[in-house]
Amino acid sequence: EAGVAQSPRYKIIEKRQSVAFWCNPISGHATLYWYQQILGQGPKLLIQFQNNGVVDDSQLPKDRFSAERLKGVDSTLKIQPAKLEDSAVYLCASSLDSEIYEQYFGPGTRLTVT
Amino acid sequence: AQKVTQAQTEISVVEKEDVTLDCVYETRDTTYYLFWYKQPPSGELVFLIRRNSFDEQNEISGRYSWNFQKSTSSFNFTITASQVVDSAVYFCALRGFTGANSKLTFGKGITLSVRP
Fold it and tell me: Cα separation of A57 and B77, whole Å?
């Protein structure tokens, strides 16, 4: 079974530029999550989708971050414009459903904002 | 709000030593789940175990074992006869069921280095 795929793996941009990350969850997984992991910390949930609907985006900085999951499969997370403090690893995860099932994580995208 | 504390930040052991990673949690939910994840240098978080709040039985899986004690709000993880491949960052996480607690909350992680 293929795992969660993410691209790109690494991205370096200057502040005020925009960037987009892509995620393809495990086939059949209804729930998709985007996390931000700052160096030395645990992942922090940014947004959770159930199929193509948003379940929780309470910690998403909506003035600059946006995410979509068209057709309930792939998802894209965008930052526009980027700030220095957005430097982090962005992890995508998926689970069968949003209840008790464990989440499976992708390899992440390491973003450096200079 | 729920919280996970991993007081140890870095642990270094020699191969074949046993090592215990501590995890203390706080939640007001009566039903919750606890998890351990491993993050090797490649960056991908690997699921290790999930326990629910009603099951306090200890669990053993090969060299890994977990000790869940509700009385002390702890869910500790022991690696027996550690190996170099165990070197990684280990995260404890908590998921409740009410409102904001229904998201997965991670601790800051413990960096384990196993030296040959």
Answer: 31
Provide the residue-wise pLDDT of chain B in tens; the chain has 116 residues: 899 999 999 999 999 999 999 999 999 998 999 999 999 988 889 999 988 898 888 888 899 999 999 999 999 999 999 999 999 999 999 998 777 777 899 999 999 999 99
Q: Give the C-alpha separation, A100 to B105, whole Å.
A: 14
How many C-alpha atoms does A68 have within 13 Å on its Cβ side? 4
Tell me the one-letter amino acid at B58. Answer: N
CA distance A40 to A56: 24
Angle in degrees, CA B110, A114, A44, rounded to 5: 35
User: Could you count the other beta carbons within 10 Å of the beta carbon of residue B4?
Assistant: 24
C-alpha torsion angle, residues A102, B89, A113, A10 (rounded to 10): -70
User: What is the C-alpha to C-alpha distance for residues B83 and B99, in angstroms, rounded to an integer?
Assistant: 40
β-pair type (B88-95, B74-79):
unpaired
- Disruptive mutation site among B29, B104, B108, B111 for chain A (greatest number of A CBs within 10 Å): B104
* Closest Cα in chain B, distance from residue A112 (Å): 15
Q: Which residues, listed in sequence order, are joined to residue B12 by a DSSP beta bridge?
A: B113
CB-based contact A100 B52, cutoff 8 Å: yes
Tell me if residue B70 falls in helix, strand or coil.
helix
* Chain A residue numbers touching B45 (CB-CB < 8 A): 43, 91, 93, 105
Q: Partners of B79 in the beta sheet?
A: B19, B64
Q: What proportions of chain A, in percent to the nearest 5, are helix, strand and coil? A: 5, 50, 45
